[in-house]
Amino acid sequence: MAKANVVLGVTASIAIYKALEVLSILKKRGYAVRVAMTEEAQEMISPVVFEALTNAEVYTDVMEEIESDDTNITHVALAKWADVFVVVPATANIIAKMSYGFADDPVSIIALTTKAHKIIAPAMNTDMYLNPIVQKNLEILKENGFVIVEPIDGELACNTKGVGHIALCEDIVDVIESSLYFKHFEGRKVIITAGPTAEPIDPVRYITNRSSGKMGFALAKMAKFMGADTTLITGPVCLREPYGVKRIDVERATDMLDALKREISKAEGEIILIMAAAVADFKPKEYKESKIKKSGSEFVLVLDENPDITAEINRFAKENDKNLIIVGFAAETNDLIENAKKKIEKKGLEFIVANDVSRSDIAFGSDDNEVILIYANGKREKINKASKEEIAFEILRRLI
Description:
Blueprint: E1 5-10, H1 17-28, E2 32-37, H2 39-44, H3 47-54, H4 74-81, E3 84-90, H5 92-99, H6 106-113, E4 117-122, H7 126-130, H8 132-143, E5 146-148, E6 152-155, E7 161-165, H9 169-178, E8 189-194, E9 199-202, E10 205-207, H10 214-225, E11 229-234, E12 246-249, H11 253-266, E13 270-275, E14 282-284, E15 303-305, H12 309-319, E16 323-332, H13 336-347, E17 351-356, E18 368-375, E19 380-387, H14 388-397
Parallel strand pairs: 1-2, 1-3, 3-4, 4-5, 8-11, 8-13, 11-12, 13-16, 16-17
Antiparallel strand pairs: 6-7, 9-10, 14-15, 17-18, 18-19
Helix pairs in contact: 1-9, 4-6, 5-8, 10-14, 11-12
């Protein structure tokens, strides 16, 4: 069974090929997709291509009809079928049509008919995009419930560079997916730490760990999907931040602590802090300003303990009268429950998420996880193996 039904409106822009990529990602994520194309778009890419990818007829003519359970009017049938209606790419022309209620092509007529979530991804020349008329039309669409996936700076078809390049396809699909979530965290602040920290030994070497950051990034993505004002503070990782999430990159444990203090100081009201980062417990006692050379003898590295960031932040919040709810993580290789329980009171946690990183199927770098939630009152709750995004949703759901 499909996650949801998406009608993809395609208009005539040089970025039209991005519609194929968005369609491919949607299909991989389990969505059912139908396509509507303007006449001009059909001159750039044949509808046959979209039909091959969707295994369904493309809506190309407002005069055509199809059979359905309760209507033989194509745009009405598709409008009712859709859970989400998205236009990729959205030209200045289709934006103008939709903002003023025109309905003379397959895309604009569905936009006027459907009650589905409506999303557009503009793509056009910089001067055209920044034109006050286009900006006014976008504001009209926003006022009427459309979500705009803002274009980015990039190379444009007119051999210039500037804003107007269509958003990343993964971001467009994330916004589509986000529209289907209840906004339980709207108006609430969520701060998440992710990834490893790296403690420098000399200019070319450092101490770190195997954390990929995937769990923290999944939490940030789900928090944003659920409406939170989300900040992600991450150590060195090779991951793209979720759309709409504020990202702060740090290196050392002390850098992460400083970033947390700054963000908590600025936040108002209740703050949910999820400490998913694998912070280095130790750091070199002495940093060497130049690369350490081989000497032919034993090299001894002396380590100091890093501060306990979670405990430090808990104290900082109390001293500054901040309403902080903290969720911790415990990545253990043995005595999982006992080691995790010791951290709850010490760090002032709402609950701790314990996971066994000795298992190859859920270890650092895996796309899946399996965790046990241990609450301050001793209650335990297991979340069976699932994708890290599913685990992230279940963790956040317990904070609603």
